[in-house]
Design a protein that fits this description.
heterodimer, A: mainly beta, Ubiquitin-like (UB roll), about 40% strand, B: about 260 residues, alpha/beta, about 40% helix
Chain lengths: ~60, ~260
C-alpha cells in the first residue's frame, strides 16, 4: 500500500505504524508522529493500522536555541 | 551560590545553553560540557529523510543535561501548542520553551499568540517557559496563568547587542514572582554577568557561544562570567552615588606636616 510520510509517497508492505517506522529507521525515543494532524502516541504505534493514502508527519528533536 | 529552582527542580548552574549553530555535534557536546550548563534547549522539526539527522538528544542526556524543547518555527498559538505536544511525545518532558515569532527579520516574539499558547499549555499541565518581549505587564499576565518562568529578551535573537532592554528587565526582575531568565541578545560574557548583577535568575545563551571562533573556550568564559555575576549579586553591590567615596584615609596629617 501507499502512505504519505513527510510529504513523500512511501510504498510499504507493513500493516502497523510501528512496523512502518521501524522500516524508516525511526526510533520512539526522540521522535513524534502525527497522522492527519493528530499526534499518535508511541504507546499505540503497534496497534495503529495503516490505511491506503494515510498522511503521516514524523518529527524529531534537532539543535536549536 | 544559591541553587536555581525551575518548576520545582534544582540546578547548580544558572546558564542555559541553546544547541543551534554549532559546527558539529562534537563541538556542541564539548561546549555544553565546558559551559557547566544543566539545561539545554532544542527544536522540533519534521524529519528530513534525505538529509538525515544527527542524534543530539543522547550526547546531551549522557552529560546529564535536562532538555528543554522549544516551539521555534511556530507562527501562532495553535502551532506552538502542537509543537509542545510533539516535543512532550518525543522527549517525555512536560517542559517547553514557548516561542512564537512570525516575523523572520527580527524574530521578535508575538506577545498575543505567545500569551494564548502559554495559557493553554499551562492548563494542559506543561511547565511553560515563555520567551517574550521585555514587557513587565505581559510578565504579570503570564504569571497569572501559571508559567514556570518568563524569558524576556535583551535584544533580538542572535544579534549580540546585549541588554538593550535593561530598564525593563530591571522592572520585570523587581516585580516578578517567578524566575526571570534573560534570553536572546546576550553577546558577551560580561553581559551575562550584568544580567545576574541586576538579579536575573538565569540567562540563556546560544549564538554568542556557537558563533565564537572557539566555542568551547567561549562556553567556559560564559560559565565563569555567570558565576561571577551571581556571586556579585549575592555579595551585594556597593551601589552608585554621584560623589566620590574616599577609599584612603582622609586625615589631615599631610596638610599639618607641611604647614
Amino acid at each position: 500500500m501507499k502512505v504519505i510520510v513527510n510529504g513523500e509517497e512511501v510504498e510499504t508492505q507493513k500493516t502497523s505504524l510501528k512496523e512502518l517506522l521501524a522500516e524508516l529507521e525511526i526510533k520512539a525515543q526522540g521522535s513524534a508522529v502525527a497522522c492527519n494532524g493528530e499526534i499518535v502516541p508511541s504507546s499505540t504505534w503497534d496497534t495503529f493500522k495503516l490505511e491506503e493514502q494515510q498522511t503521516f508527519d514524523v518529527f524529531t528533536l534537532v539543535a536549536g536555541g | 551560590m544559591k541553587k536555581l529552582v525551575l518548576a520545582g527542580e534544582e540546578f547548580n548552574s544558572r546558564l542555559i545553553v541553546g544547541t543551534g549553530k554549532f559546527a558539529s555535534g562534537e563541538e556542541l557536546r564539548k561546549a555544553c560540557e565546558a559551559s557547566g550548563a544543566q539545561i539545554a534547549t532544542m527544536a522540533v522539526k519534521r524529519v528530513d529523510f534525505k538529509a538525515g539527522t544527527d542524534d543530539i538528544v543522547k550526547p546531551l542526556k549522557d552529560l546529564g543535561i535536562k532538555l528543554m524543547p522549544n516551539t521555534s518555527g511556530a507562527r501562532n498559538a495553535k502551532e506552538a501548542i502542537f509543537a509542545a505536544e510533539l516535543a512532550r511525545e518525543a522527549l517525555g518532558t512536560d517542559w517547553v520553551k514557548v516561542e512564537v515569532h512570525p516575523d523572520q527579520k527580527y524574530l521578535l516574539p508575538d506577545p498575543i499568540e505567545t500569551f494564548e499558547a502559554c495559557k493553554v499549555l499551562c492548563e494542559k499541565g506543561f511547565k511553560v517557559f515563555a520567551y517574550i518581549p521585555a514587557d513587565p505587564v505581559l510578565c504579570r499576565r503570564l504569571e497569572e496563568v501559571g508559567v514556570a518562568a518568563v524569558m524576556p529578551l535583551g535584544a533580538p535573537i542572535g544579534s549580540a547587542r546585549g541588554l538593550e532592554t535593561l530598564p525593563f528587565l530591571k522592572i520585570i526582575i523587581n516585580e516578578s514572582h517567578v524566575p526571570v531568565i534573560i534570553d536572546a541578545g546576550i553577546g558577551a560574557p560580561s553581559e551575562a554577568a550584568k544580567a545576574f548583577e541586576i538579579g536575573a535568575s538565569a540567562v540563556m545563551v546560544n549564538t554568542a557561544i556557537a558563533a565564537a571562533n572557539d566555542a568551547v573556550s567561549m562556553a567556559k568564559a560564559f560559565k565563569l562570567a555567570c558565576e561571577a555575576g551571581v556571586i556579585a549579586y549575592e555579595a551585594g553591590l556597593a551601589g552608585i552615588v554621584d560623589t566620590a567615596r574616599a577609599t584612603s584615609p582622609m586625615e589631615k596629617f599631610l596638610v599639618e606636616a607641611m604647614a
